[in-house]
Design a protein that fits this description.
The chain has about 290 residues and is mainly α. It is built from 15 helices and no strands.
């Protein structure tokens, strides 16, 4: 990956070529978006948009002809988020921006891609009626509406998750090429401020009361807490100079024990905004 980033940063021609080809190849769109993000972080928004235009063309092609807007929405979100990151150097503001973009995506998807959502909803409704008839019977006429909300929110949330991971990848590329070790220090220190943490939790609680899609709001508001929680775990492992195997075990447990462990991680990230667990841990080794 570092060699690819080095090649892309040789000049606008190389960066544009990598971004366009990667976006055009199925399942490699995230590489194209990461290259665009790297250019923005290193050279600025203007040059990043020049490169991003070449990635936008195949992304639009996938949207119009392939009925798959994933590459398009991820690319747009990455461009906006890394532009915010470059301007503010704040991951907190970057993640909040991503949350806002996810909410906007949830509004735009039914308008721009109604047939895609309809096909997904029909598939979901058929699945519930065949494999969960009790749930389908309980929901009755509301089944299609509920499935539609879940599908819409899942798509918007997935796009946001991919965009955040790609933005982190672009930042790590920038650090490896121009500031070795900088991304590790930056990520380990990532922590949400108290107002932002409260805002995220309040949004998830209030959304059902206001009639807003609760699944969409939970995706949007929960992701900043999730990223902050992961940063907290990485930071603690780094402070204690623990083996990378601990992180591997943690991620395995996160997959196997979700959603319980994920909810616990969100709670710890919220509490960390007040208690700053990393600041209370003494480093291991000679620093002790």
């Amino acid at each position: 990956m570092r060699a690819l980033a080095q090649f892309a940063m040789r000049g606008p021609l190389q960066a544009s070529g990598v971004a366009a080809v990667a976006t055009a190849v199925p399942l490699l769109f995230w590489i194209g978006a990461a290259v665009v993000g790297l250019v923005i972080l290193r050279l600025g928004l203007s040059q990043g948009l020049n490169v991003g235009l070449w990635a936008l063309l195949p992304a639009l092609g996938w949207s119009w002809f392939g009925n798959d807007p994933t590459a398009l929405f991820v690319l747009v979100q990455v461009v906006v988020m890394v532009a915010v990151l470059r301007t503010t150097t704040s991951w907190e503001k970057t993640l909040l921006t991503g949350s806002g973009l996810a909410l906007a995506t949830g509004v735009l998807l039914p308008v721009l891609f109604p047939q895609l959502l309809k096909d997904l909803v029909d598939t979901g409704v058929a699945f519930y009626r065949q494999y969960n008839p009790d749930v389908a019977s309980e929901l009755g006429g509301r089944l299609e509406e509920v499935v539609g909300r879940v599908m819409n929110a899942s798509m918007a949330g997935t796009y946001l998750l991919i965009a955040v991971v790609v933005s982190l990848l672009a930042r790590s590329w920038q650090a490896k090429l121009y500031n070795p070790g900088g991304f590790r220090t930056e990520f380990h220190a990532l922590r949400l401020g108290r107002p932002v943490a409260v805002l995220c939790v309040a949004a998830m609680i209030i959304a059902p009361v206001l009639g807003v899609n609760p699944v969409l709001v939970s995706w949007s508001a929960g992701l900043p807490l999730l990223v902050a929680g992961l940063a907290m775990i990485h930071g603690i492992v780094g402070i204690r100079k623990m083996s990378v195997q601990w992180l591997v075990l943690f991620y395995i447990a996160l997959v196997l024990l979700s959603p319980s462990l994920m909810l616990l991680l969100l709670l710890l990230a919220f509490v960390d905004s007040w208690l700053n667990f990393r600041g209370r841990i003494k480093p291991s080794g000679p620093a002790e």
